[in-house]
Adenylate/guanylate cyclase domain-containing protein
Amino acid sequence: MFTDIVGYTALMGNDEQRAFELLRKNREIHKPVIEEFGGKWIKELGDGVMASFPSVSNAVYAAIKIQEACHEANAYELRIGIHQGEVIFEEGDIFGDAVNIAARIQALAAPSSILVSESVQRDLSNKNDIQSEFFRTENLKNVKEPVKVYRIFLAGIEPKKLKPPKLIKSSIIPEYEFDIHISYRYNDNNYDGWVTEFVEKLHQELGATCKDKLSIFFDKNPEDNRLQFEHEDGSVSSKIKSLIFLPIISQTYCDVNSYVWQNEFKAFKEQIKSEKLGNNIKLQNGNSISRVIPVKIHDIDMEDVKLLENELSGSLRSIDFIFREDGVNRPLLPLDDEKQGNSYRPLYRNQINKLANAVKEIISGIKQFQKENVFEYSSFSPTLTQIRPNVISTSISGAKVQMGEKQKPNIYLAWTSNDLKERREEMAIILQKAGFNVLPSVDCPADDEIFKQRAKEDIQKCLCSLHMLSGEFGRRFESEDNVSFPQFQFMEAKKKIDDPGSEFQTFIWIQPDSQQSMKPSQQEFIRYIRNNITRNMMFSNSAGPMQLVDDIRVVMMKEKVEVHDTKDTEIFFIFNQQDEEDAKIITDRLSLEYPVEIMNIMPDGEDEYREVSSQQIPKSKLAVVYFKYAADWALPFIKQIWKEVGGASSPTPLFFVGEDDPRSNLARNFKAPKVVSTIVPKDEIPAEVKKVYTTIVNLK
């Protein structure tokens, strides 16, 4: 605990005798109280006192009693700061980071107040007779991490409030006052300072994301005492003119009678109607985004979702900071990034980055608007022939470079169940970087009919769809509680596939970590999908989004290839040249009973061999990929060829078989729909192939 007499230095210069009297009085107040609560008087530091205590509560009780005694004496005012941590006692003194932090906290305190660190605050949670409130997060000198600071309430003693700094107009656009306006309910910050910390983290992230130094308006006062902006002419206004509005959507934010809703949220919406920029900003990729970016810290009631959508004309694109767990509905914290547990839980660090990138997009769009050079998005009729890789041709002699840019294909990224929202956002970013235009670009509508209409319209604009499924069934329709939103979108995509001559593709990706917690209704839905696999439909077992997107690009952006001379056969046997000698023995034995086509893949030209395989496999009843020494070739090869022949919808099963010598082959396997994988001795391989072949023929 550090204490300090307010204004002592000035007093020492004016009245030295009076200053010494205050020091004596200060000792008289401090020493008995410190001893009463088991503390240890360490030393005086000029006009301050440093003491240590055996517990947090003892230190705070002592600080409260010292302030009360000082108030009764009416001779001077004190600042007090308290922190707990490890210290080193040496020759009557103490050392350590905890000492430095306590001293820095004391310097932040207003006259007649007590400030404590978060570590102290946590240990006070069970002390009903000690009340506190969040003060602010502070970057303390010589302290690596920011420290959350709290103020202790003192009965009958009102600390002097520090005068807030005058707000300075600082937007990148001259006619605006700030770039970003943070709107929130005071109670969402009062408990643990969540909003204050969020603003600081956002400021830091924007500094690392945007070239411009963006300003943020954030008023720390309660709603009924929010600061008013003072203009140069002396007039004041509660309507801060900002480029971007960030409402912190909590369980209480959507209250139409609240000050925040009426004087901040609604006021901003009314204000931008008369501005040249308007409500939506056109981005360089042709999409548009609202100047209002909701930041959700709670899952909110459906009525509140509809209220928001109504105010935002349905264009709700929120960035969620929600800690999702059964029975829990609280804001995500930076400390949660260090916790192990639910893999669906988003990282605070990633969400801050997503928000900063969204802000950057809007700022870039505003700058483009200012130049009066808005990019127009040219629509096109989606056909596969329009999808081509970038064409690059060079001529060294003429020093010419010509580049033809391909048209981005539209992909429908289906709205997911609530637990996958952050994963869907991550997937959208990866797809965009891979050259796709992602639809829809906003959050899932709350209204059933609007959702159905939007889903149908966007699917019709796309060449393919991606459906990310977890163990959750997802939100159900009010009128059809046996149908979920994810299920409806899949059925609409299936309708498009079933259209005669349709080239539409659908990809289904069940999250790898959702199998153990699959709800019965979701199990039934996935079973339906598996039983109704058709052409142009593929299940993916990809371990991550990057691999999945690469698979989609292979299927969707594949150029027309040469047609090879293939013929119908019973067994198509594929092996690498490294295993030619052993493979010949196996195929000779098989050919005694079945027609066998073989392909010996040489070291060069794998792409061509892969193309021949993808054309021959559908004309075979069974495709076998065999390996002995070529395991490093075999596994990537079968994974790729499985995708190219349709994955789970492949007309021909694949048999991935390897020898058990060398023993390292035992770790090589590939589990996927329409794939059988095994490792056996070489002598048993012909019998294993026959067994798999016979099973397939009998099933057909």
